[in-house]
Amino acid sequence: MSASDNHEKTPYDLKKTKRIKKMKQSSLIDQIVSLQNEDKINKRVLPGNYLECFPFPKFRLNKKKPFYIGRSKENDLVLASTDVSRKHALVKWNSEERAYIIYDLESANGIYVNAQQCQRRVLEDKDIILIGEHHISYFTIKELQEPKEMEGAETTIMKQRNKIVEKLYASLKGNLEVLDLGTVLQMIASEKKTGYIKIDSESRGYIQFENGYVVHCEVGEEKGEEAFFAIMEWKSGNFNFVKDVKPTERTMNDEVQYLLMEVAHREDEQQRGEMM
Q: Domain count of the chain?
């Protein structure tokens, strides 16, 4: 048993109401993850235990190698969100229990498995792990899956997925206090969408996309990356995504994941400065 197993944590009650609202709004994302898993299982996939977090590809776990999850780039799964600690969680094979176990590495906001907060938990097939606002599915593939075994099923799955995706993007509007802007940006990037997000908060801001890349940001007279970082500081306000609109201007050409990691880095620097 690790030292973190006995570590007392402060209940995450202050954000509980917002978390419940966000979990309801993210149900469409969970459906997409489920269909992605089916789609990939229908292609040739090796037996084993997997983790998958939309919009990232799945990870096949290795019994000899611990799997780290957190905000810093040294982790195996990097979640560039402010509600994720630099080293948040660890998934590791336990030979005595013959199972993968997830550990909370004394994170600020804890980990949840199937909606229950835990510090150490044995993972079982189809468990859903919640870290910050990120849903991570844990699943087991027991036998080698060949494409010919599911002939015709892939088309059906893709049709289902496309319907859910269209429904998701039709509802990509709401309040920043309910749906985290970073999550929205990652969804747009994962689907390589073109269009723009309009955000009304302290001011009005725009983030424009082309094929999933951020190509222009604007707030007031500020443009480019600094405008993006200014928008990401907003914690309240409303947003709306308008798809299939070509960029009006090009001041940058960056991946969303890179930008979100830079946001997290800046926040770390600011916190260190305040502590000095």
A: 2
Which CATH number fits the domain that encloses residue 151?
Answer: 2.60.200.20
Regarding pTM above 0.85, the answer is no
Residue-number span of the structural domain to which 208 is assigned: 172-275
Q: What's the average model confidence in pLDDT over 105-118?
A: 91
**Burial of residue 185 (number of CB atoms within 10 Å: 0-12, 13-18, 19+):** buried
Residue at 167 is within a domain:
no
In this structure, is residue 205 part of a structural domain?
A: yes
Question: Of the ranges 70-79, 148-157, 233-242, which one carries the lowest mean pLDDT score?
Answer: 148-157
Residue 230 falls within a domain, yes or no?
yes
Residue 245 CB neighbour total at 10 angstroms? 13
Measured in degrees and rounded to the nearest 5, phi and psi for residue 261 equal -65, -35
Share the mean pLDDT of the chain.
Answer: 78
d(CA 15, CA 28): 21
Provide the pLDDT confidence category of residue 264 given band limits of 50, 70 and 90: confident
Amino acid symbol at 15: K
- Let me know if residue 43 belongs to a domain: yes
Phi/psi for 154 (5° steps) reads -60, -40
Write down the pLDDT at residue 43. Answer: 57
In whole angstroms, what separates CA 144 from the centre of its chain?
28
Order of strands, edge to edge, in the sheet holding 89-94? 77-78, 67-70, 89-94, 99-104, 120-122
DSSP 145: B
Number of Cβ within a 10 Å radius of residue 274:
7
Identify the domain boundary among 133, 162, 191.
Answer: 162
